[in-house]
Design goal:
Layout: H1 24-37, H2 44-50, H3 55-63, H4 70-79, H5 84-100, H6 108-153, H7 167-179, H8 184-199, E1 213-217, H9 224-237, E2 242-247, H10 251-264, E3 270-272, H11 284-287, E4 297-303, H12 306-316, E5 327-334, H13 342-353, E6 357-363, E7 375-379
Length: 382
């Protein structure tokens, strides 16, 4: 593949040879993937372990025996520091290999055209529903407000007050105004919206734990990361001691979100259990610090995948006193999960393990998508 040359220290024969009878389109894709992989100073086994894959699967992908998922190609390019033109070339090769795939992929080109036409028709229909969807969002938000106020009036819940000390919010606010030069009006809008979000939360030390569920509708480009960071900052200021942020299932997105949050939320009162270059792994030493009365807040940014969530469920189940731990699970992926899917069930498992956890999820779509019962709703303007 142009621009990628195998380094001298890559041992010949480390990758199994490509089969002679492989379709030319699939051979070209395999050769391009091997060229990119050749720039990495790691073995197949080490790379597979770093990505949560098996070495045998990676070998099959690089031999062309099995067509890899698109996430494998995106993550491989990310690890190799791939250029945009390299990504475009690999995407073309990938589509050609799909067309050559027997038993179901041979009509991929025709199917893509049909999908494009169906997408165009769906977009036209979506425009007709947009006005009704906006009105529904306003009505649902008002219903959520009234339900919350009824619970407070009946004495079932205490409203989370604005934190007396808002250190992390102040740090975030200064970063927005100074470092990023965001307009003061935009920062004020984030302040108002995140106040509303955190007000839905249960008081961390309430006698009867309550799990708030909040769905935030936010247009693409409105600054989802800024709203998420502001929410996390105010949650820590309010006494929440475990914050789990779920990113889209790509390393590049997770790394970007981790970098933004860790730039703003740091210092002696915060313990990061993930970093810019590593997703969550078993870190029992970090979880030993999780205590309801501990002054340190533990933060994680992980990909919203079943593999990672299974590790978390297993490790959090062993945390002493987890039932009293005030936690926030903040989902920034943007897409609704099918009800009953593996990932959906794992998130519900986390909420059962952490009775004092509050669940916030951002959605890029209109409110026609699935809405959980008793889920508060807020719509962020463009």
């Amino acid at each position: 593949m142009p621009g990628y040359q195998c380094p001298v220290n890559k041992q010949p024969g480390e990758l199994s040879p490509i089969s002679d009878g492989l379709h030319p389109a699939r051979r070209k894709l395999a050769e391009a993937l091997r060229a990119v992989f050749g720039t990495l100073p790691v073995s197949v086994r080490k790379y597979a372990a770093s990505q949560g894959l098996t070495a045998s699967n990676v070998t099959r992908y690089l031999k062309g025996d099995v067509l890899p998922p698109e996430t494998f190609i995106a993550d491989l390019l990310h690890e190799a520091g791939g250029r945009p033109e390299a990504a475009a070339e690999l995407n073309e090769l990938y589509r050609a290999a799909q067309d050559a795939q027997p038993r179901g992929w041979g009509n991929a080109t025709r199917l893509r055209r049909e999908v494009a036409e169906a997408t165009r028709r769906a977009q036209s229909a979506q425009q007709l529903l947009a006005a009704a969807a906006d009105q529904l969002a306003v009505a649902q938000a008002r219903i959520s407000d009234l339900e919350r106020e009824c619970e407070i009036l009946r004495g079932h819940r205490r409203r989370v007050p604005r934190a007396a000390v808002h250190h992390y919010w102040d740090v975030f606010q200064r970063s927005c105004l100074a470092d990023q030069r965001m307009p003061a009006e935009y920062v004020a809008a984030i302040d108002q919206a995140t106040d509303w979000i955190v007000e839905q939360f249960d008081v961390p030390d309430s006698a009867e734990p309550f799990q708030a569920r909040v769905k935030i509708l936010i247009p693409v480009g409105a600054g989802k990361t800024a709203y998420a960071t502001g929410t996390v900052a105010k949650a820590i200021d309010s006494g929440y001691r475990l914050v789990l942020v779920l990113s889209p299932p790509f390393n590049a997105f997770r790394t970007q979100l981790q970098s933004r949050l860790s730039d703003v939320l740091g210092g002696p009162g915060v313990l990061w259990l993930t970093g810019d270059h590593h997703d969550y792994r078993k870190v029992s030493a970090g979880f030993e610090l999780l205590r309801p009365s501990h002054d340190i807040a533990s933060l994680l940014v992980v990909k919203r995948t079943a593999t990672i969530l299974r590790r978390l469920v297993k490790d959090i189940a062993d945390v002493p006193g987890r039932q009293e731990l005030p936690a926030l699970i903040l989902d920034t992926d943007g897409g609704d999960l099918p009800e009953g899917s593996v990932t959906d069930r794992l998130i519900e498992d986390l909420l059962r393990l952490l009775p004092r956890a509050q669940h916030v999820r951002f959605a890029d779509t209109r409110p026609a998508a699935r809405r959980t019962a008793h889920e508060a709703l807020i719509s962020i303007p463009a």
